[in-house]
Amino acid sequence: MTGNHSLIDQLQGADARLFPAANAGDLVSLLQRVRRDLKLEPPDDFMEFLRHSNGLLVNGLMLYGTEARRIDDAEMPELVEINLQRRSYRDDLGDVLQLGEIDDDIVGFVPADRHYWRIERISGERQEKFDNLQALLTRLVLRG
Question: What is the pLDDT of the chain when averaged over all its residues?
Fold first, then answer.
């Protein structure tokens, strides 16, 4: 992701809840588990983002990290576990790496087309496409 510090600075300016960076071991483990358990390849810019913030909460958007968290009265699931859980009852999302959620939608990455998507949670319809994580965050959070 280009301009990581700029993006992090912008998110902080938007009152985002950023978490401590994931360490190298956690990132390697996450990468291995995504490949082994989900048979998908995570996007490089998302993995790079986790090096700066291991998850994100801002303006209704939640991006998962390498570990589950309890935040106030809400649960933030761990990335691989939530994907496995949803796959157990959602066959239509097997080609999507679900990275987070916003409002009533899923935020996912489709390795086959190398795009991020905002996906309607109930129908599974792909609503909005983004070329990279920065474009997604700019549109959904920073309102660019």
Answer: 90
In 1-120, which residue ranges form alpha helices assigned H by DSSP?
A: 4-13, 24-33, 44-50, 79-87
For residue 109, give the amino acid letter: F
φ/ψ of residue 126, rounded to 5:
-80, 115
Q: What is the value of pTM for the model shown?
A: 0.90
pLDDT tens by residue, 35-65: 999 999 999 999 999 999 999 998 889 999 9
Beta bridge mates, 139: none
CA distance 118 to 116: 7
Domains recognised in the chain with CATH numbers = 4-140 (3.40.1580.10)
Closest CA to 66 of 82, 87, 44, 89: 82
